[in-house]
Each structure stands twice: as C-alpha cells, then as structure tokens.
Amino acid sequence: MLRLYIQMYRNGKLKMENEKLYNKKSLKAEEFINHEEVLRTLDYAEKNKNNLELIDKILEKARPVKNGNETHCQGLTHEEASILLACEDKNVLKKIYDLAEEIKHAFYGERIVIFAPLYLSNYCVNGCIYCPYHNQNHHIPRKKLTQEEVKAEVIALQDMGHKRLAIESGEDPVNNPIEYILECINTIYSIKHKNGAIRRVNVNIAATTVENYRKLKEAGIGTYILFQETYHKESYEKLHPTGPKHNYAYHTEAMDRAMEGGIDDVGLGVLFGLERYKYEFAALLMHAEHLEAVHGVGPHTISVPRVKKADDIDPTKFDNGIDDETFAKIVALTRIAVPYTGIIISTRESQAVREKLLKLGVSQVSGASRTSVGGYTEEERPTETEQFDVSDQRTLDEVVRWLLQLGHIPSFCTACYREGRTGERFMSMCKTGHIQNCCQPNALITLKEFLMDYASEETKKIGEEFILKELDKVENESVKKILTNNLKEIENGKRDFRF
Ligand code: SF4
Ligand code: SF4
Known about the structure:
The protein is of the alpha/beta class. The protein is 50% helix and 9% strand. The chain is built from 21 helices and 11 strands. Strands 3, 4, 5, 6, 7, 8, 9, 10 and 11 form a 9-stranded parallel β-sheet that branches. It has a two-stranded antiparallel sheet with strand order 1-2. One iron/sulfur cluster binds at residues 111, 113, 411, 413-416, 435, 438-439, 442.
C-alpha cells in the first residue's frame, strides 16, 4: 500500500514537473521541445486514433474558411495533428489527402517555386554519422570553392535558368568561417551573366551566434535554413558524437538566435529515418508553435528530407526509415497543420514521389541539383564529393516541362524578400490568402523569362500556351493589365518585373 502511494505520489509529482517543464514560450530547448510532452502527445494520439468523432472535428477545424475575399485556416496543434497521424483508417486517410489538396490550392494555387542547392565546402569538424562529410571520413576528397569557382558555378546555374539558391557548407571555423560565407554570398549576388541573376540566396549553414546571424541578414540572405535532423535528444547526441553540433540545446535554439539577429524567415527540417517519425512530427510542430508563440511568426519553410545513400553511408543501417505512403501522409498533415508554411522537397526523392507530394502540399522543389562541391561546372554529374545520392536527375528544362504538364506553374519568383515582405508582414498576407495575388502573376512573369532565355523549343511551346490560359484566369483587371504589359516587355528584352 505504502509502495503504491509512493508510486502515485511520484507519478503525480512527475506530471506536475512535466507540466511545469513544457513551455512553448520558453527559450530553453528542453522546455519548448519537451520530451515528456512529446511522449504524452504520442500516448494521447494512440488512445484516440480510432475516435472518429474527434477525428472529424479535427479535420473540420482545419478546413479553409472563406470570409469575403479572404481565406483563413486555423491549422492544428501538435496534439491534434498527431492523432491524425496515428489513425490508420483508410477513409480518414482519403479525407486527409483531400483536405491537404484543398488547403494547398487555397493558399498556394498552382505555383511551385524552383531552387537549386550550391555546395561551397565539404570541410566539416562534426561527426554526424548519417552524412558523408563527417570528419572521420578520411577518404572523401575535401574541397572548398574559391571565389573564382563560386563565380563559375553561379554562371552555370544562371545558364540553366536558376534565380534562387540555397547555399550549403560544412561547419569548420578554420576553412569555412562566417567571413568566407559572407564573401561567397557577395560574389553570388554580384554576378550578372547574360540575362541571368541570382535574386535570392537562402543559407543552410551550422548553428551560429546572434552576431553572425546579424551579418547574414546584412548580407541580404533570404531564409536561414537549419535541419534539426532529430528532435529526440538522446538519439541526437548519439548521432552527433563529436564536434560543436553535439550540443543539442545550441542547435535547437539556433532559430531563436537567428530571429534575434534580425532574420525573420527561418526554415525547419527533420531528417526522416533517424528517429521514430511520430516523435519527429510532433516535435517539429512543437518547434513551429514555439516560434509563433515567441516571435509571432512561424517557420517560413519546412523541409522533409529522408536519409539517403552516400559515400560511407548506408541508409538501411538506420532502422527508422519510412515508406512512401507514410511519407506522403506526413507531408499532407504538415500542410494541414501549418497551412502558411512552405514545404520543400529535394531531388533526394524520385520523380514519382515528388509528383504525388506536389498535390499534397509541397510548394518548393529543387531542380537539376548537384550535391557535390563544384558539381555544376562539370559536364557529367560528379559523385566523388556528393552529400547524398540524387534520385531525380532531370535537367531544369525537363523539370519545368514536367511541372507544366502536371498543371503547375513553375516559378522562379523571389519577389517577397526583395519587396520587404518577410516575417510578420509576409505571414499576414499569407494568412488571408492575399499572397496569391502576388504569387500567381510573379510565377507567370518568371516563367516567361525562363521560356525566353533558357527553355528548349518543346518547353517553350507548352509554356507559352500555359501562360495564355493562366492569364485568362486572372480575375483582378488591373493586375491582368499590368501582367499583360510585363509579359510583352519581357518579349522586348526587359527583365525583373514583380508584384
Ligand atoms: S550534416 Fe552538416 S554538420 Fe554534419 S557532417 Fe554533414 S556537413 Fe557536417
Ligand atoms: S510572391 Fe512571395 S510567396 Fe509568392 S512565390 Fe514569390 S516570393 Fe514566394
């Protein structure tokens, strides 16, 4: 009896401590990604996964609501979304997919933004065991681009038609200090080759200091992206046995420092396959809720990479891999839970997988990516220094044509941050659905530029017909007039119009 009492007392005390510990407004990683809160959520989801009445209520709550010329969506909490993820009912899955499509259409229309990664350096002092750049990999060639090489890579990317890059670099204070990254950003923005220009540089570098984030902001970056890899602290520490990245709290709190440094567009991401996906999904949404609660702005983007084969890396060694169906469900539920956040899918995924996910909520794709340092200037795709195996190896022209044939508008738009529509300003336009008045015309303008400057004859023909049809759909007469004029001006050789 006494033992039972002690146990009950301990449970109660533990619960109170957990309640005290979980705090989405806290700036401490272990409080806003509180392990016990994740476990409690998963337990609650498991218990309610067949509660169809509750599930219908959750789906109803998430539905877009029209109010005059505005559309609003409430999104879902990590707890609600986790119940939907746990549910295995086939009818519910169909409802989830339908709702994800409806939300995607309401807030993003048909545009799909295209970008490319640019690898600057694979020198890295960390020991991440899922990445070929880990510092114990002594046989991978190490390479860091000189400014001349950055220039050559950027020209190659511009010649394909890219306007938006995500720069990638390993963590190495000696080889890749912040000054090197800043110099590269400066070089990238300075190159104007023929009609080409990189108009937005997103940055995917290691967690750093507020001061360095401030420098990145001043250099004119778009989004700061940092994948959490896994939110499970114990696994995180095992997967990152050495180097500064071993510090879970420093890594998890990076977005708060980035925002303190003035960067208001940040991109989250989980590397699916490292930990149990239900844990990651709940924690990822908790991270989004934390950013919203503390900074008033949720994540600008969420990336959903899966562990892939690479030099020294065998994905089958990670026993939490997820199949394509589960992956699709995660993407659809992310779209429903955080309707205003862009979802990014890379060329890690095959054409077939990407095709399915586009409908369910993905808003950005990479195209013609080379994931090696200096890969774009080589004739053949080099694999020596690849960070991961590229499944979708099509050219940018093929990717653009494919999107058009699927009814999507391939977009090279970079307008928002150049017009100062970032952070809260961006989110308020997004949350009313008004951003579509910019996205659609900007997609058509940048597609027209691509068709004029870089497309094959076949893509050009399909694209021109597509633009005419889309132009017809523009309801706002003044937007239509300006857009028609811009498209003509592009034919006459002018570039870089935007709404
Ligand atoms: S994931 Fe990033 S930090 Fe880790 S080894 Fe690879 S490049 Fe370095
Ligand atoms: S208008 Fe803004 S949100 Fe829309 S595609 Fe362009 S940059 Fe993205």
